[in-house]
Amino acid sequence: MSESEERISRTDTAVRGSDTAVDAAEYDTVAMAVVGAVAAAEGVSEIALPPLYDAGIDPDALNELFEGSRTHVEGFFSFVYFGYVVTVTSDGGVTVETHRTA
């Protein structure tokens, strides 16, 4: 089993219908938690997904926003990545929902 597959199986992941939630504290960074949550929702390895940059998300900025001591925010940030709406909350939650277009 690869390290990425182990992380998916080790992570406290909750799958509710088309939603997946992970605790960002289980990962080294918030950006890694995002990729891990989407990978879990897709049922694939984290390395099978495109970089966050492809969705217009700077992983370093995301990490600084939710982990940095100077710019820590209270609230949430949502964006679309790999067909999912990803929401990162200031309490360390990462939720992934299937993106539906009208």
Automatic annotation (TrEMBL):
Residues 27-97 form the Halobacterial output domain. InterPro entries: HalOD1. It holds the Pfam family HalOD1. This is Halobacterial output domain-containing protein.
